[in-house]
Amino acid sequence: MTPTAAASPEPTAVATAGTAVTAPSQPTLLAAGSVRLPRGSTARLVRRDIRADGTLPVPDGVTEVTWWGSELAAARGAAVLAGHVNWQGNVGPFAELWQAEHGGPIEVTDRHGRLHRYRITEVHTVAKNDLPRRAPDLFAQHDPHRIVLVTCGGRWVGGRLGFEANRIVVGQPD
What we know:
- The chain is built from one helix and ten strands.
- By secondary structure, the protein is mainly β.
- The protein has one domain: Sortase, Chain: A, CATH 2.40.260.10.
């Protein structure tokens, strides 16, 4: 994900494997149109289309994630959720993806409140300049249904890239 002009030029927290993410101590009911990550962090879903230049849509802050691709109840295709690791000095829920492990749970509720459960089956760290080459496989809409979570992280390099890498977590329906 490429930062926009509203993103802070020098992040106060860089997400890496050692970054701590605070999560609620007790599970709570998940609001309609939300995602809950394995450690309990949540964010609100905002449906957006892929941009005309083929880039992933990005959210307007850390409390929401953009969703494009397949529907949650689809038989085929990736439901892609993209969220910021941080924004204007605030660490977001998707920073948690840097600690994601195989087998971890992901829960998503659609706008009607129906719960969809997934288990993490893949965790990838992809260099930003390698993402366009890998995108057809990672985000394919012809493969069996799955959820794909995307965020930035690693070292801050600034410019058009922002962070040097993307963290991509794939989950299969549970």
